[in-house]
């Protein structure tokens, strides 16, 4: 088959149906793609992961790249010599995703070798989440002073923790930061140890905590989520108590958070753009019907004592903004035209690029036109310019470069 890779290519990209996605006419992905069903629409995958590769002319881009590595280009191949470095997604959560983290490269290789069924590739999965609307999430650990206050005011949770580890954490005011991290990790992992030793204690503690919280006149967002999750059948799930260890944050539209390897997190509700290294490796701790691996999570979880940095992107010199991350696998660009058309020279940012139109219309050199919900691919051989019609929104992912590596 003949494909002109010097031109933009519309892709067939798969929407994944997971239980936490949205159903019916209110579904964000359903509205974006104009495709509605009774199954929950959760993630639009744009990339070349073998689980759900985007297709051009009926063939997966993973296969195209094996046959034609020039589509990726030398810069991309220097980052990952065997695959597209990133996976690009639109994620829509009507319910909480699992409490999870992603392994680093060495851990991913070991996990894939030991358990290829549950860890399907050997790659790491750093990622960025960019809110499309208000998005509720758990992002890294709660600050130490707040966490100590939370633990002290929730005796049911305290009863599940190792008392010696807790006392060590509480007395750690003069500790070096590394020691504080060790102490916090010991308390956190003792929760999972208790869950493995005595799962019935988890359920009893959750039931008691729920009864007490329901009676409170004023409830924190975490307490409201705890009650909601308990009502939905998670009382026996240790993940329900992770809420109190992690930092609850409502991301505003356009706010982005980078999640490096081994940082625990969970997306609770809302729609986001996601970009990550090309992997589907997830270590789950709870709140999911999927495979849970608390032993691995307890072993590799990384503790940070400061809140994760939130960014709004910075000017990209092309009429939009760019979200830079401290890895080379990806960066994300965003354009929003206002009341007039906006021309963009994409030869300024080469490499293999995926774009998704969230609203409006874009045209490439008065030839190819893409509208709301369309996904397109630009190979490294394509240096086209594009024009955004008025009131158009577009996200685009590409591999990073040296200048994209931030702190």
Provide the residue-averaged pLDDT.
Answer: 93
* CATH third-tier fold name of the largest domain: Jelly Rolls
Indicate the low-confidence ranges by residue numbers: 402-407
Which percent bin holds the helix content? 25-40%
What gyration radius follows from the Cα positions, in whole Å? Answer: 22 Å
Please, what is the oligomeric state? single chain
Describe what you observe in this structure.
The protein is α+β, with helices and mostly antiparallel strands. The chain has three domains: 9-139 and 249-311, Jelly Rolls (Sandwich), CATH 2.60.120.10; 144-244, no CATH class; 325-404, Jelly Rolls (Sandwich), CATH 2.60.120. The chain has twelve helices and 24 strands. The strands form five sheets. Strands 2, 3, 6, 8, 9, 10, 11, 12 and 14 form a nine-stranded antiparallel beta sheet that branches. It is elongated.
Short description:
By secondary structure, the chain is an alpha+beta fold.
Give the SSE layout.
Elements: E1 9-10, E2 15-22, H1 28-33, E3 41-46, E4 55-56, E5 59-60, H2 61-67, H3 74-79, E6 86-93, E7 99-101, H4 105-114, E8 127-131, E9 135-141, H5 144-152, H6 155-158, H7 163-170, H8 177-197, H9 199-214, H10 221-234, H11 239-242, E10 246-251, E11 256-259, E12 265-277, E13 283-286, H12 294-300, E14 310-311, E15 314-315, E16 321-323, E17 331-336, E18 342-345, E19 353-359, E20 361-364, E21 368-371, E22 375-378, E23 385-388, E24 393-398
Helix pairs in contact: 7-8, 8-9, 8-12, 9-10
